[in-house]
Amino acid sequence: MIDGDLTNKKDKIEDLRKKHEESIEEEKEQEDLVKKYDKERNERCFLPNKEKINYDSIILLELFNQEKFSDLIKGLDKLYENSQEELNYHEIFDKNKLSFGGWTRLPIISNSNIEDIPIISMDIDLGSHIKFIKVYLHDVLPSMVMLKIHAYYDNNVSEKLNEIIYKYHDSKIVYSDLPNEIPNQRFLAFTTSTHSGPKSVKTEEITNFRSSLKKEVINFFSEYFKGVFFELSPTDSDIVPSIEIYSLDYPKEKEDLLQWAHNYHGFLGCFRTYISEYNCFKLNNKDDSFLFLNENSNEQSFSNSFIFINVDKDSSHELDFISFKSVAFSRWLQIQEQTVAKFGSILSEEIGNLQNNQLEDVLKTRKIISKSIFQFELFKTEFKLIRPENNGFKLIDDSKYDLNASLMEQISEKIKNVDELINTFNKHFNVVLGLKNVEYSKNMQNKVYILSFLVLTLTIVQIILAFKSEIMALFANS
What we know:
This protein is 51% helix and 18% strand. It has helices spanning 2-29, 31-35, 38-43, 69-79, 89-95, 155-165, 198-222, 228-232, 254-263, 265-269, 325-341, 343-355, 359-383, 403-477, and strands at 54-65, 103-111, 122-124, 130-141, 144-153, 172-175, 193-196, 242-247, 281-285, 288-294, 305-309, 394-395, 398-402.
């Protein structure tokens, strides 16, 4: 009977494999039909007349808590050891000359590999993509400073990006093998292939290129210092808040802009963003127009931002006077949300340690948690001191609602969420600790009873022995 069951099972698996192979063959025969519309789908991602865009620069934001000030100073000393410009950041930290909310520009770093870039302050090897870097030191909170790193790209970056955008990508079809182990023979539906259209393939290539450029900047500065975000970036570079700056032609009037965004949503989708009256903030500066947008992707844990400039020349220097500190604060709080959300698993571990009387492990964990909570409470207190900052970006649907107000609302909501998570954690931990105290008190009480009984027993034994000695002494004397 067992042999018959095994035979039937093998026959079913063999039939399933044949059907799977037949399905793959049928799909392969239809590949040409699937790819027939690849050309049209590629062109949906193009701008009119294959207009070129310029990837001008990228802004990275990095925060440093007070405990890391000394490491930051050492890193800046190492970075600027060959600078031709006078350095003033020592005075900033030593004498606190940078008033709360102020900022200062550090020496510009030029790329020694590019000949037509003048050496303004110092030159260093920045690879083959970056022309020069501006660095700004912002005193954003009494216990926190921020570095705003603005890296300007060489023309070869824009050339490469346009090459990817206007390349005719083929659909990507990946055929799947049938699993070696099939746990449920009644489940006969297995995916034979996955299909990615030209837009998905193009988007992936653009995203990888953008990510590689960002990592170059992160890796360069990580050799000198690591703040909150750079320290976490090896696992996910998206965790470092960034704003990518592009120059391209688009309408300036609201209705025309929205129609343009609708017509070329395929192009915007390749950057994982879109334009609507509810998510687009605009800054008008003389004849220049700046659009602030966010990434919109479910594939990323952390979404970053773009600025599209409608000018023929690079006007991103206009952004030098905007700190974007609210962007950095929002990201910092997003990390705190994720950190505090993990306290639940930590609580389970602490319960186990308490049950096993591993108090040393409990204290070690609580120190880490207490430090995280203290940093959040300090931020929450100091954040109340921040004055509203108008960076000029207004919602295109409501000129009274600006970008900073939107970010401040997000920050306030995140503070509220973290507060609730911490309160919930502390409440449950205190309950567990209270129960453990009751258990400890009961155990101590039992030990006291046992100890009292032993003392009483020993006392009685001593009395009996003493009494026995007295009687023996009396008999000896008589």
